[in-house]
């Protein structure tokens, strides 16, 4: 057995959290705790980069697999990664240190508890992307609710209690059906090991119901229309860092789940329900874009734009084409970076002026030029300008969609235009225009740590926008393999019907 | 005479009870002494039971008394939790002036009654054990006799419990009349053919037992009794009678009435679903923590019964696992309650927890863990308890039960979250005294760590329980 690198990735943040729990800070500011948290999360980031480096991009098998007896021999603790999961892990480990650096601005009370919550959250998020057993997956998937509930509830805004409850109960309600499905899979096939399930396949007659049960969980988490309403509330009330985690990583769990489980385990049902997903995705893209246009609160606008972007993701996944799925994964990574950056940018002005209402701002370019530049990059990333990561994701998804269904693709393209409309309008109202509000004059430009976090996000957005090759290389083989298995099952099923 | 070595634990505890009574009568101010002696005798009792537990199935006294894996395991968790109940409550009963000699003696007698219930293999022996524990419990419920709520709860418990005992006895007599025996194994042999008499017998017996574990629709006593009794007695009520009654439940369903599972399965499924839903919904509006935990225990018993409804060994084992984890969670929860003390007064309303996390981070963290675990959120122990039950339920394709049960957990999650909200999100109130009671702290630490770390080795209880096979 080699060095258990994935388990280390999962456990390292928790160990860090325990460490913080038992350290006493002499001053009330918990500076030392913050350095410990930053150190741990950076170490985890480096570890994940090393993982990426040694990861074999051409192999379609799961790598770094660890398999340990866990539940009295019938369910194993099994983790492993392939090209689909590796990028999400890196995204998680990359966003976490950024969050920890930015707690400076937003969190004033109980900093120590907050750092512990973030690190525990990181453990669960990495666990979700690594797990190769349905029960282990469920465990991590659900466990993430606890720290997020506390992050929204303790450090959130005025209506935090309502939002925290809504977030928790919505997600839990979606997930319990998935638990029934997971246990049913165990009794139907005798295992919950994802690798074995890929080989065995699940009988056709069960697939539709099981797919729906998984869908109920992922649809809430994605979130898809009409169960998206928890997201704007949660985003608006969560502290900046909470919003970043939520948008950048938590939403990706569902997209990842769609590819790994819905497509992988229930190919025939996925084919049956394609139209349902198309319709819901299109509604999400068009409807929430229109809703976003009308928002007066910056965070709410970005939250709705997240729903629209995730609509593209689900659309791309269910085109079942190489371009569509690769585009979806790329879009998720891109959205992870861009939405994190946008929420941080909103956090910057919110921390200075304590309002998120768009009409209170205007003309920031004259007093905060640096801020205007980075905010512009993020805006363009969000609307998918060529040269940013957002473009590549959307472009590939639309390519995939055109291949399968031209009407769907055309409606989805409208979403791109609407996306440009609400993002540019937001940018115009906040950064350009007359500075009518005299109080804004006293606002200072970016501080050092803000420059660090925001430029850390600008670099990958532009770099991978111009040169997506490194990311595409990692996912290509695995996506191809997933699709091959998918098509193979479909053909087999057709053959057995005749 | 050589049989007596097998019931050494029962003999030992009976002698201890009589001895302590004598000491209490002849020695003045011996309440604390007897309390500690009782606790020590429970530890010895536990050792004696563990010593016997390596043996195989043993029938005693004309097959009316049975010692097997089920009874051994149940007795071990019974006495084990008895020790912790005594440990956590010691300070409490001193503060509210209940430290009298009768208190530990009544607890010991009811434990003796429960042990007899658990081991009984005969209707008459079973009923004797049941009445011994019930009589002790009536007195315990009204032990704080100057308190209106406590006397009310004692009376209420007495009247309703007597009614249910009557029903139970009627069921026993019907069963005896139609199967010509009081011995469980004999009833099984004689009841191969369907007849209405035994079916009625089953229904009445199940009603009586459902009352003892406070399952819907026989739960009416639970909230009042839980709220009115002294908290240490509430803890006792929440754990020990449930262990005994559930073990008798298993025994009745799978020994004398094993052939008639078509008849009782529907009843159990109904009781289980009703308890899960009612417990979850009714707890939402509660303001008193003890009352809330009464409703929560109703819904937890629903999940434990869901395992029994499956008619499979896996189901029985999952129920026992559920019960074991449930009692640890309750121990932890009540340990936290015992810590809410200020100026010799204990606080038990949900509002009293407001903002607890600012001044008492460790206590609040334990409560957080316990409440999420009670709600069944992974990776805590409560999730695995539910997971095992649903594993067994879905194995038998009882999807309706599984889905209703899981949806009820979402409703239940709401009121657990509400408590967490009050602890963590609400403005703080006055500080509570720091507890210096070692027994309390140890109990809280052990149970919280158990809940938190259970996922590291989640089959620990299952492996022990897997020896218990009834079919």
The share of residues in helices of chain A is over 70%
Please indicate the percent range of residues of chain A in DSSP E strands (runs of 2 or more).
under 5%
Q: Using the alpha-carbon principal axes, give the shape of chain B.
A: globular
Rg of chain A (C-alpha, Å): 22 Å
* Main β sheet profile of chain A: 2 strands, antiparallel
Number of strands of chain B: 4
For the terminal residues of chain A, how far apart are their CA atoms?
47 Å
Oligomeric description of these chains = heterodimer
Please state the structural category of chain A: mainly alpha
Report the total helices of chain A.
21
Using brief descriptors, characterize the structure shown:
heterodimer; A: 498 residues; mainly alpha; two-stranded antiparallel sheet; 21 helices; 77% helix; B: 471 residues; 19 helices; 4 strands
Summarize the topology.
The complex is a heterodimer of chains A (498) and B (471).
Chain A: H1 5-22, H2 31-54, E1 63-71, E2 75-81, H3 83-106, H4 111-130, H5 134-143, H6 145-155, H7 160-189, H8 194-200, H9 204-221, H10 230-237, H11 240-265, H12 267-272, H13 274-293, H14 298-317, H15 322-353, H16 364-367, H17 369-383, H18 389-404, H19 406-431, H20 448-466, H21 469-497
Antiparallel strand pairs in A: 1-2
Helix pairs in contact in A: 1-2, 1-4, 2-3, 2-4, 3-4, 3-11, 3-15, 3-20, 3-21, 4-5, 4-6, 5-7, 6-7, 7-9, 7-10, 9-11, 10-14, 11-14, 11-15, 11-21, 13-14, 13-19, 14-15, 14-18, 14-19, 15-17, 15-18, 15-20, 15-21, 17-19, 17-20, 18-19, 18-20
Chain B: H1 8-26, H2 31-52, E1 58-60, E2 65-67, H3 69-95, H4 102-119, H5 123-141, H6 148-179, H7 184-190, H8 196-212, H9 221-228, H10 231-254, H11 261-282, H12 289-308, H13 313-338, E3 341-342, E4 345-346, H14 356-359, H15 361-375, H16 381-395, H17 399-424, H18 438-453, H19 460-465
Antiparallel strand pairs in B: 1-2, 3-4
Helix pairs in contact in B: 1-2, 1-4, 2-3, 2-4, 3-4, 3-10, 3-13, 3-18, 4-5, 4-10, 5-6, 5-10, 6-8, 6-9, 8-10, 8-11, 9-10, 9-12, 10-12, 10-13, 11-12, 11-17, 12-13, 12-16, 13-15, 13-16, 13-18, 15-17, 15-18
């Amino acid at each position: 057995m080699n060095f258990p690198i994935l388990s280390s990735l999962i456990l390292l943040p928790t160990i860090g959290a325990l460490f913080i729990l038992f350290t006493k800070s002499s001053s009330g500011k918990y500076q030392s705790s913050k350095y410990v948290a930053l150190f741990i999360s950076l170490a985890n980031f480096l570890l994940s980069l090393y993982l990426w480096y040694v990861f074999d991009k051409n192999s379609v098998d799961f790598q770094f697999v660890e398999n340990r007896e866990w539940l009295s021999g019938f369910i194993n603790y099994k983790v492993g990664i392939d090209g689909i999961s590796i990028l999400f892990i890196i995204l998680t480990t990359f966003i976490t240190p950024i969050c920890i650096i930015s707690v400076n601005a937003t969190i004033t009370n109980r900093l120590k508890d907050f750092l512990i919550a973030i690190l525990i959250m990181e453990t669960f998020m990495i666990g979700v992307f690594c797990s190769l057993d349905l029960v282990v997956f469920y465990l991590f998937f659900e466990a993430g609710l606890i720290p997020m509930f506390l992050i929204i509830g303790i450090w959130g805004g005025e209506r935090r209690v309502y939002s925290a409850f809504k977030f928790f109960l919505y997600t839990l309600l979606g997930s319990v059906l998935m638990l029934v499905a997971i246990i049913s899979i165990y009794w139907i096939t005798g295992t919950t090991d994802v690798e074995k399930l890929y080989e065995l396949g699940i009988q056709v007659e069960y697939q539709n119901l099981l797919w729906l049960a998984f869908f109920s969980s992922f649809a809430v988490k994605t979130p898809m229309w009409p169960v998206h309403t928890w997201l704007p509330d949660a985003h608006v009330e969560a502290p900046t860092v909470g919003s970043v985690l939520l948008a950048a990583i938590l939403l990706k769990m569902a997209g990842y789940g769609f590819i790994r489980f819905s497509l992988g385990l229930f190919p025939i049902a996925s084919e049956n329900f394609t139209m349902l997903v198309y319709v819901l995705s299109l509604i999400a893209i068009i409807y929430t874009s229109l809703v976003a246009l009308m928002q007066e609160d910056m965070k709410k606008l970005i939250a709705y734009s997240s729903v629209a972007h995730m609509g593209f993701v689900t659309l791309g996944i269910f085109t079942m084409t190489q371009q569509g799925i690769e585009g979806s994964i790329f879009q998720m990574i891109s959205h992870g970076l861009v939405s994190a950056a946008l929420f941080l940018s909103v956090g910057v002005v919110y921390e200075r002026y304590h309002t998120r209402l768009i009409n209170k701002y205007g003309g920031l370019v004259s007093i905060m030029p640096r801020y205007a530049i980075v905010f512009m990059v993020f805006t363009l990333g969000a609307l998918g300008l060529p040269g940013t990561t957002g473009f590549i994701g959307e472009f590939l998804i639309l390519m995939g969609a055109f291949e399968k269904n031209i009407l769907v693709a055309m409606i989805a393209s409208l979403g791109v235009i609407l996306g440009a409309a609400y993002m540019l309008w937001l940018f115009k109202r906040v950064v350009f225009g007359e500075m009518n509000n005299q109080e804004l004059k006293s606002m200072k430009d970016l501080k050092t740590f803000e420059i660090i976090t925001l430029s850390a996000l600008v670099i990958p957005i532009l770099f991978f926008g111009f040169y997506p090759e490194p990311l595409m290389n990692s996912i290509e083989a695995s996506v191809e393999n997933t699709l091959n298995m998918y098509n193979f099952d479909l053909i087999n099923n057709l053959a057995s019907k005749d | 005479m050589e049989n007596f070595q097998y019931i050494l634990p029962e003999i030992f505890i009976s002698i201890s009870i009589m001895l302590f009574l004598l000491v209490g009568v002849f020695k003045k101010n011996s309440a604390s002494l007897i309390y500690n002696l009782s606790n020590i005798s429970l530890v010895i009792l536990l050792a004696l039971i563990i010593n016997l537990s390596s043996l195989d199935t043993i029938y005693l006294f004309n097959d009316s008394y049975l010692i097997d894996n089920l009874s051994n395991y149940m007795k071990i968790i019974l006495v084990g939790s008895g020790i912790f109940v005594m440990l956590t409550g010691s300070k409490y009963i001193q503060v509210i002036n209940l430290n009298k000699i009768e208190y530990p003696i009544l607890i010991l007698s009811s434990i003796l009654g429960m042990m007899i219930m658990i081991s009984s293999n005969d209707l008459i022996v079973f009923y004797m054990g049941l009445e011994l524990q019930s009589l002790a419990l009536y007195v315990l419920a009204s032990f704080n006799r100057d308190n209106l709520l406590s006397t009310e709860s004692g009376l209420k418990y007495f009247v309703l419990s007597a009614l249910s005992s009557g029903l139970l006895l009627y069921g026993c007599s019907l069963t005896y009349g139609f199967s010509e025996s009081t011995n469980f194994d004999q009833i099984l042999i004689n009841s191969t053919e369907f007849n209405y008499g035994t079916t009625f017998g089953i229904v009445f017996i199940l009603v009586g037992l459902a009352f003892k574990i406070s399952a819907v629709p026989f739960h009416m006593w639970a909230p009042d009794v839980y709220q009115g009794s002294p908290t240490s007695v509430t803890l006792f009520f929440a754990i020990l009678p449930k262990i005994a009654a559930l073990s008798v439940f298993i025994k009745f369903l799978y020994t004398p009435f094993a052939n008639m599972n078509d008849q009782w399965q529907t009843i159990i499924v109904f009781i289980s679903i009703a308890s899960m839903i009612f417990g979850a919904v009714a707890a939402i509006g509660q303001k008193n923590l003890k009352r809330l935990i009464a409703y929560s225990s109703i819904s937890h018993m629903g999940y434990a019964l869901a395992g029994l409804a499956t008619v499979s060994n896996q189901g029985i084992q999952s129920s026992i696992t559920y019960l074991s984890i449930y009692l640890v969670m309750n121990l932890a929860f009540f340990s936290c309650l015992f810590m809410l003390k200020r100026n010799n007064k204990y606080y038990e309303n949900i509002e009293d927890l407001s903002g607890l996390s600012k001044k008492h981070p460790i206590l609040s963290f334990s409560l957080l863990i316990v409440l999420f675990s009670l709600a069944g959120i992974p990776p805590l122990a409560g999730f695995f308890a539910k997971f095992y039950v649903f594993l067994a339920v879905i194995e038998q394709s009882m999807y309706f039960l599984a889905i209703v049960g899981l949806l009820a957990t979402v409703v239940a999650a709401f009121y657990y979250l509400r408590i967490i909200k009050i602890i963590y999100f609400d403005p703080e109130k006055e500080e509570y005294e720091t507890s210096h009671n070692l027994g309390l702290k140890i109990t809280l630490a052990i149970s919280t760590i158990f809940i938190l770390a259970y996922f590291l080795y989640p089959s620990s209880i299952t492996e022990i329980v897997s020896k218990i096979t009834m079919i």
